[in-house]
Amino acid sequence: MNRNHLCSNHPFVSSIVSSNSVLITLITQPMTLAIYITTYHQQFYILNQFLILPLSSSIFSTWAPHQGSPSLLGAMVIPSKVKHKLIKGVVINMESLHQEMHFHTGEFPYVDVWAGELWINILHESLKHGLAPKSWTDYLHLTVGGTLSNAGISGQAFRHGPQINNVYQLEVVTGKGELITCSEKQNADLFYGVLGGLGQFGIITRARISLEPAPRMVKWIRVLYSDFSIFTEDQEYLISSQDTFDYIEGFVIINRTGLLNNWRFSFNPKDPLQASHFNSDGKTLFCLEIAKYFNPDETDIVNQKIDMLLSELGYIQSTLFLSEVSYVEFLDRVHISGLKLREKGLWEVPHPWLNLLVPKSKIHNFAKVVFGNILTDSSTGPILIYPANKSKWNNRTSMVTPDEDVFYQVAFLSSAMPSSTGTDGLAYILAQNERILEFCEAANLGVKQYLPHYCTQEAWRTHFGTQWDVFVRRKSTYDPLAILAPGQQIFHKASAFS
Ligand SMILES: Cc1cc2nc3c(=O)[nH]c(=O)nc-3n(C[C@H](O)[C@H](O)[C@H](O)COP(=O)(O)OP(=O)(O)OC[C@H]3O[C@@H](n4cnc5c(N)ncnc54)[C@H](O)[C@@H]3O)c2cc1C
């Protein structure tokens, strides 16, 4: 998501778009341009920097960074505590360029895409070939480079691993200005470093993404639990089974009334009479969200399969809700909700999100304290919770996961009301996030942050743990001047490797 709004009508802006030589001049001769940037997280506003719209990856290859080069801020991730901070550097808008996608439809199909491409566009183009990527994020209006720099996790990750495990090849411009093609077999150190590398080693310009035959339809199912142990047992059983659902997620429901009534707009209760007697008021509930993909000629078989899988689960029987949607509708579901929020002015608000990876052995302790003591009011956004198998995670990437075979992704996806000083205000939610993190640390849960935010190198060192030395070595190899993504506050230009 790259939405950059210019505060000033700077005369360079049109030149940037139209001339390569101006681009290179700007990179080598620092000048100031005031840019107003908003991102979905909206916790920082004013930047003092350049804006570059790349015309092709070959532009970068003529770039020779030197000690005085401005920082490349990438697409910006800035820790939540840094607000209204003035930063000098260059923002590269990867979305500004649209290049054609190239499909390969052999035994192992794939697509070559520009890194600024949105996943939703890849989905639509792939479907024309009867194909689709295997692993997704819940929201598809994100760039390939953005999600591959983190991980790209959704309900398919238990089977396919995150998006970073479903890429065959990358083209990267390193911090030294070299344009390098890398894969598992060619320049593997850079390939794995950049995947989950938080934009620290290079700018991904192209990616080769693995595809599979696309289904046409999806049976989308929600069931409720009041017992956390039964909920997690069922989730863990489902992700470890061979013949299981194609998508497995879950979420926590705290202090919500009229919940099932809301669902009725998109889901049908299996037993409407029983469902009407179910009362969710006040209780903390856990919703298992699962989906089975199918093609219309397989409807009977898939229904039998679903009945069989559901019969093995311990959910509250009256709370079985079903829906049948197209594959595109299912994958693009968050965008549809987002459009509704936008209409109400509830999308362009601060989103102080906290994403944690919690080891399986600690999830009960975590849930007891966090859902029982810390989040006692109703939550300010969805709280996702679902397990993944570490065996599906390639441990050569820069992505850090907890030290256990199964871990839970717990995502507190809060929205803050801009002028509120109450429990839905930014300050309150940030303090609550801090309490959760403090508890995890005090209880020594071995939790890792996903989409991490830290303000000191010491905290980053702890985050990376045994992977820190490799991370530092890769930084000194591929971005020795530490000009890439300084907003993460992992390395500083002057003292990158002290
Ligand atoms: C509404 C929403 C829903 C989300 N849902 C999920 C989800 O379900 N699962 C999940 O895993 N994540 C999710 N995310 C997080 C998402 O994966 C990251 O925020 C990701 O960075 C978004 O990509 P972007 O295109 O918005 O990147 P940006 O915000 O533009 O960039 C973020 C950072 O990524 C790096 N970066 C971006 N492009 C490149 C590049 N080409 N080369 C090198 N580095 C680059 C830079 O360091 C940059 O600072 C969600 C985010 C949002 C806003």
Keywords:
3 domains, Vanillyl-alcohol Oxidase, Chain A, domain 3, 23% strand, 30% helix, Uridine Diphospho-n-acetylenolpyruvylglucosamine Reductase, domain 3, six-stranded antiparallel beta sheet, globular, 498 residues, alpha+beta, binds flavin-adenine dinucleotide, nine-stranded antiparallel beta sheet, disordered N terminus
Radius of gyration: 23 Å
Quickly give the structural class.
alpha+beta
What is the approximate shape? globular
The proportion of residues in beta strands is 15-25%
The rounded distance between the terminal residues' Cα atoms is 33 Å
Largest sheet, if any? 9 strands, antiparallel
CATH class of the largest domain: Alpha Beta
Q: If classified by CATH, what would the architecture of the largest domain be? A: 3-Layer(aba) Sandwich
Count up the domains. 3
Strand order of the largest sheet: 14-16-12-15-13-18-19-17-20
Indicate the CATH topology of the largest domain: Vanillyl-alcohol Oxidase, Chain A, domain 3
Number of helices: 17
- Determine the CATH superfamily of the largest domain: FAD-linked oxidases, C-terminal domain
* Integer average pLDDT: 83
Measured as a percent range, the helix fraction is 25-40%
Distinct ligand kinds: flavin-adenine dinucleotide
Enzyme class: oxidoreductase
Domain FAD-binding PCMH-type: 28-214
Keywords: FAD, Flavoprotein, Glycoprotein, Membrane, Oxidoreductase, Signal, Transmembrane, Transmembrane helix
Cofactor: FAD
